[in-house]
Amino acid sequence: MTTATRPDAPESTSKFTTPIRILLLLGLLFVFLVGVKAMGDGFKMLGKDVLDTFFAATENPFMGLIVGVLATTLVQSSSVTTSMIVGLVASPENPLPLANAVPMIMGANIGTTVTNSIVSLAHMARRDEFRRAFSVATVHDFFNVMAVALLLPVEMVTGFLQKTAGFFVSTVSGLTGAQYESPIRGAISQGVRPIKEFVAVLFDSAQGQGILLVLISGALIFLALFALVRVMRSAMMTRVEIYVSRFVSAPALIAIAVGVVVTVMVQSSSITTSLLVPLAGAGLITAQQAFPLTIGANLGTTVTALLASLAVSGAHAEAGIHIALVHLLFNLTATAIIFPIRRVRRIPVAGSEWIAGVATHSRRWALVY
Fold it and tell me: Distance from the CA of 358 to the CA of which of 65, 203, 220, 226 falls in 20 to 30 A?
């Protein structure tokens, strides 16, 4: 009797959980896009003087870089930071200049690597285990720092990323011709309306409404992405762990592709790269083997900013797509420069192994780092 009923239980559970999970994912994605749209509208209400002060501060590319690093370190998600930047750049009025946003996007890439380092600290009690874990955790850091060191000066002098992304945006716009009002954007605008009405009840001044709207939209973006990651993780985690462990020793291009796919599946590069840390601690993967998967995770995380660009509308909607493409091109260009040449791609791996040796010798340096 019991053996006859057991096979049916998982089947009936999957019938109900899968549709509910899909609806939940779609609902969370809608909330995320509403948050991005509300963010731009909130900054519109803040007023030109307030925004000019912030924009003037981020005109210095190094200041913009630091803003991106700190923002991502605080929220522990580059996806949240880049989505907010998309909303700022596509704001209906007084948008964040693209030139200011590019270093912020680069900084977000660096800030997201903090999660791996924190995860590796769990292995501090065992010296050899910690050395392996810390080297895999920091190979992501060294790649992103190296990418910024190479591309930020080039971007400051030539505007390469902005111009290339702008070319793609203008080409697509030219092909589409007539203006098309997306029903998705219309639904998102309807989703923002009750939030604006709620804010208007609490504050009379436009600036007060703008501040509250920015805070609410920031919370919506963070919570929606956090919940998306949790749902995707619960649905995919076993499969993700299998994929990652199976392709650890795969050829580099396949490993990069796996890193991209896994990150798109779980909507978090931090989860993908953090999975590698305990594998390294157990001696199942080296920094050199983890490196292609890490690069794939970097590329996969750009999908979130591209999704966020779908939410924006109005006069500066194309600017939102523009900065999302800059994010993608930054990671693609860095990969094309660093990875193909053996001696160059050895630099992040050698750097991570060196810092792991220093941290193992004196663990306080790991905490300082």
Answer: 65
